[in-house]
Write a structure and sequence with these properties.
Elements: E1 12-19, H1 22-34, E2 40-53, E3 56-70, H2 74-84, E4 93-95, H3 102-113
């Protein structure tokens, strides 16, 4: 980040990764919520991925995990997913919604900042 751009630590982030199975996705989602790295995580089954890996075209069925958190948790959630993910090079993307319902954003922030 540029020094001239202020960081909004409470800015809502949606962190996305794909996993090889529903069990793997559930395990990671539960851990993210239990560790207060995400307020919630949603899983979408039936993702069909086509990609090039080590020079070969691959096709796999995957599960998409979408976790809701805040910008202040980005480095923590990134490191956690990297360490817990079964892939050598996991997809880990973060998006900041331009707009969101205010009370939902406040709930996400309170959940990831709670000590329980």
């Amino acid at each position: 980040m540029s020094k001239n751009i202020p960081v909004n630590h409470s800015k809502l982030l949606v962190v996305v990764t794909s996993l090889p199975s529903l069990d793997a996705a559930k395990g990671l989602a539960r851990a993210l919520v239990e560790q207060n790295l995400a307020a919630c995580a949603q899983l979408t089954e039936g993702i069909h991925s086509i990609y090039r890996w080590e020079g070969k075209i691959c096709e796999e069925q995957e599960v998409l995990l979408s976790a809701k958190t805040i910008e202040a948790k980005w480095l923590e959630i990134l490191a956690f997913i990297q360490s817990a993910h079964p892939y050598d090079l996991p997809e880990i993307l973060a998006f900041s919604p331009e707009q969101h319902e205010r009370q939902y954003g406040a709930w996400v922030e309170s959940e990831v900042n709670s000590k329980s």
